[in-house]
Design brief:
Elements (H helix, E strand, L loop, with lengths): L4 E6 L2 H11 L1 H19 L3 H8 L2 H8 L1 H14 L3 H8 L1 H8 L10 E5 L10 E8 L7 E7 L6 E6 L6 E4 L3 E7 L11 H9 L4 H9 L7 E7 L3 E7 L4 E4 L5 E4 L15 H4 L2 H15 L6 H8 L27 E9 L4 E6 L8 E4 L5
Parallel strand pairs: 1-4
Antiparallel strand pairs: 2-3, 2-11, 3-12, 4-5, 5-6, 6-7, 7-8, 8-9, 9-10, 12-13, 13-14
């Protein structure tokens, strides 16, 4: 696979959802079947039990943003799947983390941002490697959503999931890192929060979208704006912290790095001990570029294999049984956003083996 299907939709929330459901039906089918298997393998949860649990998220989504729920209803109509199947898909992170008998590592990922003052062409750069189970790759799409008067969105997502990693026509971009704590509550699903961030027009609005309601799981949101600012929101279901880059660069992996981390039982750093090395290597290498950071610098860092098979660029190799970690996540895609230009470069799979393709927002507000 050299590229993900690029799907463009517009209209009312229900209409654009229906278009997404129709245009990406094959990928949605794939994702539902994949998560039926992953729920069982990772959490010993069958699909019907997952659906029963997912019912609780419907009022949270509606309270958070009724238009997002309406779009999910449209995806249901367009794809021919029951609404609860789509809710289950959008709450897949919460189902895995909250229903598993113990703590479970999910998404990996290494994210980076560089502000115009330290970039070669004075542009706002944001990007990440998104690491997860490689079986989801056939279900990925590039979704372009014209939702006027809200900003147009250009994102990479698992088909059927309404929010993920990408940018919008107002200059906002967001990356995601999974985090873990011992809290188990019901709240707004992480992918709904991501959509809320991408619906925002300013950086303060985006932070508010990440913080304003109880969340269903812990996550890190690295958020930037083409004005040249970046903020990082580390969140648990019931608390959050916001980090600001002191030297114009910010790197995040899968453990808490903010001051509030001392009061949090950080489970992800135990399940993903490679997070510390990825954090350190990416930070060190980004610093070496000084004030000449450019997309090529991001690409070189995202291709790094230090600590392999647990590196920044990951190939999903099986670990020896005595290490207690049977499967290492795989880099599903690598993305580098130029928020100043309204473009992103996307490599499907590992960036060490695959070239980046340029995508551009069709409008800029």
């Amino acid at each position: 696979m050299t590229s993900f299907q690029h799907v463009r939709v517009s209209g009312s929330a229900f209409e654009r959802g229906k278009q997404l459901g129709q245009l990406a039906k094959q990928q949605i089918n794939h994702n539902i079947e994949t998560y039926k298997a992953l729920f069982w393998e990772m959490a010993h949860v069958k699909w019907e039990a997952a659906r029963a649990h997912a019912v609780q998220y419907i009022p949270w989504i509606e309270r958070y943003d009724a238009e997002i729920l309406e779009e999910i209803k449209g995806i249901s109509a367009g794809s021919g799947h029951d609404l609860l199947d789509l809710i289950t898909l959008n709450a897949r992170s919460e189902i895995i983390t909250n229903l598993a008998e113990g703590d479970v590592a999910t998404d990996g990922c290494t994210s980076m941002a560089a502000v115009p003052e330290i970039t070669k062409n004075q542009t706002m750069l944001l990007g990440q490697n998104w690491d997860w189970n490689n079986r989801v790759k056939p279900g990925m799409i590039v979704a372009e959503i014209d939702q006027s008067p809200r900003p147009t969105i250009l994102m990479v997502t698992e088909a059927g999931i309404v929010g993920k990693i990408g940018m919008n026509s107002a200059g906002i971009g967001v990356c995601l890192n999974f985090l873990g704590t011992s809290e188990r509550v019901v709240g707004v699903p992480v992918h709904i929060v991501l959509r809320g961030i991408l619906n925002s027009s300013t950086l303060p609005q985006a932070v508010g979208q990440a913080a304003r309601m109880q969340r269903g799981t812990s996550a890190n949101y690295l958020i930037a704006h083409r004005e040249g600012e970046v903020l990082d929101v580390e969140s648990t279901p019931t608390n959050y912290d916001v980090l600001y880059p002191a030297d114009g660069r910010l790197v995040h992996a899968n453990h808490f790095i903010g001051p509030r981390s001392i009061t949090i039982q950080d489970t992800a750093r135990i399940l993903s001990p490679d997070s510390h090395l990825r954090q350190g290597r990416a930070s060190k290498q980004l610093t070496l570029y000084g004030n000449a950071v450019d997309p090529d610098a991001f690409k070189q860092i995202f291709r790094d294999h230090g600590g392999s098979p647990d590196g920044i660029c990951r190939h999903g190799e099986t670990q020896p049984p005595d290490l207690g970690r049977q499967l290492i996540s795989s880099t599903v895609f690598s993305i580098i956003m130029n928020l100043s230009a309204g473009t992103f470069e996307l490599a499907v799979g590992q960036p060490c083996n695959n070239s980046y393709e340029v995508y551009r927002l069709t409008e800029s507000k």
